[in-house]
């Protein structure tokens, strides 16, 4: 039996079938391991972009997959928790076990060096294959040996022309740092699209055309089963850590005209700065078209777009491509209404926190009885008054208590907020994204 305590430095020579996914040889060896027929269970260490993509590939090879992630969510650099849980539910529905807030401690194998199990803080998981996908470190040895300056984040320091501290030496790709255009700070962001643009900028500079590389927005995307997940800029968590006065909006909806046969759902979360109205970041997930909206945001955010401007963008519309008012425009309008103080809401996480603390508030469901019958929230403080009769029945609600309203997507929730405020209620909010975006337990009757 062998235990390798440091997963980053694990010697793959001691135990077979532990791969770090940083070389094309790994892909070949993983294929050989799978084709041997001996791999029934695999553990992926790390719930980032690469870990998730590989998970899907293994499940398609009929291997039972467990993802072990140290932090409290999948794609922690891209998604806030409520968005990440929606993605996690989809992965679990596709047969993947996800263990978050759990750290891998080492590996166990037999005397022949065959991997048998992965040891984690929460127990031991049977595995004949383990993949370590815990992030990327720049290999800067060559640059260091040449005396080039290295940034605090461990990557080679370059200026806007991608020159290193020696102006005759340029650097680009995964080994350099970049300026984050939202934070105006140097960050490490190893992505393939950036490496390609760096290459062109460097080539132009070497050829005598002075050209700058402006910086990055952290635009990223992946596909896991039928779910796409894209992100740009700051998450809500990052924005708060950087002292922004944060406003967020979660808006679910079909990616094409709702009546179009191939329309699929997407969830958009926008993160905005209350002071300037600027979009600081976005997360978009779901089976629908994520990429084009993330890329629209990339162009807008490069120019410092505000929610107000985003809400007026002249976007291409025809039913096979988008709703007449694109989901992004709707999300920008919701964000702007919140910035203006017209719309008042709580995030799903804030509602859950109130429920966990057993706070005294009303969860007002304004959907029709038929909708409530098919899916509902399992909490004692839920009261159902359909929106259509709220003006007649509002007096059933206590004036003094906090009321949090929801419907399917929280459009009716917002209308109900306005109705109750008009009737004199002063502590009324809607739940962002409605029941369709609720990432926790629901009662579902098919
Ligand atoms: C599994 C996986 C999936 C990915 N998917 C995506 C994706 O979907 N989207 C995305 O944007 N990015 C993705 N990436 C990241 C993307 O691959 C990298 O950002 C990109 O390849 C970086 O390009 P590069 O030229 O800097 O480095 P590399 O592509 O790593 O190329 C560097 C090359 O330099 C060689 N080399 C190193 N040292 C020396 C030396 N001293 N002398 C000569 N040669 C040397 C290396 O062998 C290597 O061939 C993925 C990465 C991985 C591992």
Q: What's this entry about, in short?
A:
The chain has 446 residues and is of the alpha/beta class.
Topology:
Layout: E1 18-19, H1 24-35, E2 41-45, H2 49-60, E3 64-68, H3 81-93, E4 97-99, E5 104-109, E6 115-120, E7 123-126, E8 129-132, H4 141-145, E9 178-180, E10 185-187, H5 192-206, E11 220-224, E12 227-233, H6 236-241, E13 246-254, E14 265-273, E15 279-286, H7 291-302, H8 307-310, H9 327-339, E16 345-346, H10 348-356, E17 361-365, H11 369-374, E18 375-376, E19 382-384, H12 390-393, E20 402-406, H13 411-422, E21 428-431, E22 443-444
Parallel strand pairs: 1-8, 2-3, 2-8, 3-4, 16-21, 17-19, 17-20, 20-21
Antiparallel strand pairs: 5-6, 6-7, 9-10, 11-12, 12-15, 13-14, 14-15, 18-22
The structure holds flavin-adenine dinucleotide (FAD).
Flavin-adenine dinucleotide (FAD) is lined by residues 21-22, 50, 142, 173-174, 190-193, 195.
Structure description:
The protein is 28% helix and 23% strand. It has 4 domains: 7-132, FAD/NAD(P)-binding domain; 141-206, FAD/NAD(P)-binding domain; 220-339, FAD/NAD(P)-binding domain, CATH 3.50.50.60; 345-444, Oxidized Rhodanese, domain 1. The protein has helices spanning 24-35, 49-60, 81-93, 141-145, 192-206, 236-241, 291-302, 307-310, 327-339, 348-356, 369-374, 390-393, 411-422, and strands at 18-19, 41-45, 64-68, 97-99, 104-109, 115-120, 123-126, 129-132, 178-180, 185-187, 220-224, 227-233, 246-254, 265-273, 279-286, 345-346, 361-365, 375-376, 382-384, 402-406, 428-431, 443-444. It contains 13 helices and 22 strands. The radius of gyration is 25 Å and the shape is globular. The two termini are 49 Å apart. It has 446 residues and is α/β, with parallel strands linked by helices. The protein has a 5-stranded parallel β-sheet. Flavin-adenine dinucleotide is lined by residues 21-22, 50, 142, 173-174, 190-193, 195.
């Amino acid at each position: 039996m062998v235990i390798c305590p440091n997963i980053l430095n694990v010697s793959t020579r001691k135990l077979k079938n532990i791969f770090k996914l940083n070389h094309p040889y790994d892909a070949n060896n993983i294929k050989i391991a799978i084709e041997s027929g001996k791999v029934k269970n695999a553990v992926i260490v790390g719930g980032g972009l690469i870990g998730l993509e590989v998970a899907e590939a293994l499940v398609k090879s009929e291997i039972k997959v467990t993802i072990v992630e140290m932090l409290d969510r999948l794609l922690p650099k891209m998604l806030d928790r409520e968005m990440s849980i929606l993605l996690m539910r989809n992965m679990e529905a596709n047969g993947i076990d996800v263990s978050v807030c759990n750290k891998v401690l080492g590996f166990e194998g037999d005397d022949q060096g065959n991997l048998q199990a992965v040891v984690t803080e929460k127990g031991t998981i049977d595995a004949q294959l383990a993949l370590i996908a815990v992030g990327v470190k720049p290999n800067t040895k060559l640059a260091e040996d040449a005396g080039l300056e290295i940034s605090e984040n461990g990557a080679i320091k370059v200026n806007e022309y991608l020159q290193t501290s020696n102006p005759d030496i340029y650097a680009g790709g995964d080994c350099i740092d970049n300026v984050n255009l939202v934070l105006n700070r140097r960050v490490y962001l190893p992505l393939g699209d950036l490496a390609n643009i760096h290459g062109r900028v460097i080539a132009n500079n070497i050829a005598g055309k002075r050209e700058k590389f402006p910086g990055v927005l952290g635009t990223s995307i992946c596909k896991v089963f039928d779910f796409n997940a894209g992100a740009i800029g700051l998450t809500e968590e990052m924005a708060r850590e950087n002292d922004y006065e944060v406003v967020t909006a979660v808006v679910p909806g079909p990616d094409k005209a709702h009546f179009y046969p191939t329309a699929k759902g997407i969830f958009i979360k926008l993160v905005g700065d209350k002071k300037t109205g600027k979009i600081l970041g976005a997360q978009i997930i779901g089976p629908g078209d994520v990429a084009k909206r993330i890329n629209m945001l990339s162009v807008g955010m490069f120019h410092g777009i505000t929610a107000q401007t985003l809400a007026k963008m002249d976007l291409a519309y025809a039913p096979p491509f988008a709703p007449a008012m694109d989901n992004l425009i709707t999300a920008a309008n919701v964000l702007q209404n919140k910035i203006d103080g017209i719309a008042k809401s709580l995030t799903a996480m804030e509602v859950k926190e109130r429920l966990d603390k057993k706070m005294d508030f009303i969860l007002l469901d304004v959907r029709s009885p038929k909708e409530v019958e098919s899916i509902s929230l399992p909490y004692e403080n839920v009261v159902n008054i359909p929106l259509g009769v709220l003006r007649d029945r509002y007096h059933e609600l206590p004036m003094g208590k906090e009321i949090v309203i929801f419907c399917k997507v929280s459009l009716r929730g917002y209308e109900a907020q306005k109705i109750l405020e008009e009737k004199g209620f002063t502590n009324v909010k809607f739940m962002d994204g409605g029941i369709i975006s609720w990432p926790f337990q629901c009662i579902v009757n098919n």
